[in-house]
Amino acid sequence: MSVSQRSASRLNLLILNFLNRYGSYESDPKWEIRESKVGGLGVFATCDIDVGELVFIDSPVLLGPRCIPDCPLICVSCFRQNNLASCNRGCGLPVCCARCQDASAHQRECKLIRQYRSETLNDISSDLFENLTPIRSLLLHPDDREVVTSLIAHNRDQHGHEVTTLKSLGFQFKEDDEKFMRFVCCVLDANAFEVTLGRENIKSSLRGLYPLGSLANHSCVPNLVHTFNHRHQMVAKAAVFIPKDTELFHSYTRLIWGTTTRLYHLYKTKHFVCKCPRCQDPSEFGTYMSSILCKSCRGIVSPLNPYKSHGKWQCRDCKKVILGREVGELTTLLGAILRDIDQKDFKFMYNFLQGKLKTVVPEYNQVTVELKYKIIWHLGHKQGYTWEELTIDLLEFKESLCKDILLLLEKLRCGQNKIRALLLYELFCCIREKRNRSKATSRNPITNDMDSYIKEAAVIMEHDVGAPEEIINLLEHNKDKIPV
Ligand SMILES: C[S@@+](CC[C@H](N)C(=O)[O-])C[C@H]1O[C@@H](n2cnc3c(N)ncnc32)[C@H](O)[C@@H]1O
Fold this sequence. Notes:
- By secondary structure, the protein is α+β, with helices and mostly antiparallel strands.
- It is built from 19 helices and 16 strands.
- Among the domains are: 98 residues, Beta-clip-like (Beta Complex); 143 residues, no CATH class.
- Strands 1-2-12-9 form a 4-stranded mixed sheet. A 4-stranded antiparallel sheet has the order 13-14-15-16, covered by helices on one side.
- The two termini are 41 Å apart.
- The relative contact order is 0.09.
- The site of S-adenosylmethionine has 18 residues, from strand 2, helix 8, helix 9 and strand 9.
- It comes from Rhynchophorus ferrugineus.
């Protein structure tokens, strides 16, 4: 499709037909594709949408492994991780059983691979596995090909390297196929989502191209929350109340990153400068997530202009001005310590959080927030710190960290997002553990908020294949009791 044909009305028709083909068609959709003020086309609400309400369900037009170094291997048919062996027809892709090996979709890609690379492989090729998704695009039905061709593509040098890797593995593609695959790589880089697989012991995830999902633009104050269900469909719900005619936004970055990091990440990966209300506010809605503390008076130092992180930063209290370079150096140093921390023990994390960090950055600085997040996932989960092993003090410490980050998310106007759901569940587990112990020692129960925490978590994570098992069971067995 040429650029001039890329009109909103054409895209509406294409996407509706696509959803129809894949069984997620709605007779009265709550969305419409229109020209966006932020960039190109976007998706808009055609009616008021309540918080938590379903906005759309989208199917992947293309789904396959992610192209990241050392991506954990999974079966290319069923995406499971167990009993992997190389396909015995010699394509070099991992499959888990004869049924997956004989699945028609795999047979087609296997044949194509053997056609394009004469050498047969007896072992699994992880290079081929990581670069399989563009090969899959050659097998698209012409109608789906038209959908892919209608999506925007990034055209910088960094995109399309997957095809170069495949050629270095001995693939000799027809010219048209190579051109199309390179284009698809550029479309994937502009639009693809990371798709969670959900099984708790699977570390891998997929790369999926969701036509409707990908037409929604980005905001760091998103009004959509999306999850993936067991059929790998994207389920988009309203994270906040969305009035009619409002543009629908996902977040393409992590919500608990500060503005400097988010802007850099969005520019590097998606090549645009976000102008959302959070990015424009030097205080980030009063959270000061990118800020540091003033060396002179311990006041909060924030950028005069968030879009010039290397420009001038000023202390809110003593008004002293410093250069962004100084802030950058401290943030880089703290970031490096944080990255290293996985190997260190809990005591180190605890002392760093309660000690040094408090003297150099404000309480919601992104490094502090990331460290608190790490500690939350350490306590109750890691060896030596399982729920039963935690002291009451540690349970209460974890509880306070969960509440702290939930408050931050509220300040950031995030609504019903996935981090909120996970934190609510962790909070529920803390309080349940405390209650169980107080029962054992016949003291009175401490609190009874726990039911509301798990219920809200369940409402947010409905349709989420990555939800904790207890939430999935709750949704399956107590449907009537949960106000979904
Ligand atoms: C997944 S696409 C979104 C749909 C796109 N607007 C279109 O017309 O197809 C991502 C691209 O949209 C643009 N975009 C998304 N959010 C944006 C924003 N907040 N500000 C500016 N451009 C944005 C950028 O070009 C980005 O690379």
